[in-house]
Amino acid sequence: MKLQVNPKNPIIRGLSDLKSKDEPTALLVANQLLDNALASANLLDDPKEMIARSYQALEKITAS
Question: How far apart are CA 59 and CA 64, in angstroms?
Fold first, then answer.
């Protein structure tokens, strides 16, 4: 399996900036991106982990 990353993608560029500001959130985003890629290729072994991580991301985004 080969994963291609487009360095011009706004999410990837933003992830680089986020890593210096909030590394735990950057890791959450990076893992979610990997999960999305695996799901798109129908290679995701355990969707429960992806769903749990997705909820963590949503909680972080919507926290006031």
Answer: 10
Cα 29 off chain centre by: 3
Q: Where are the domains of the chain?
A: 12-62
**Chain position carrying tokens 């985003």:** 29
Give 8-47 pLDDT, tens digit per residue. 999 999 998 899 999 998 998 899 899 888 888 889 888 8
Q: Which whole-number Å values give the CA distances from 64 to 26, 27, 34, 54, 61, in the listed order?
A: 19, 21, 27, 18, 8
Tell me the pTM: 0.78
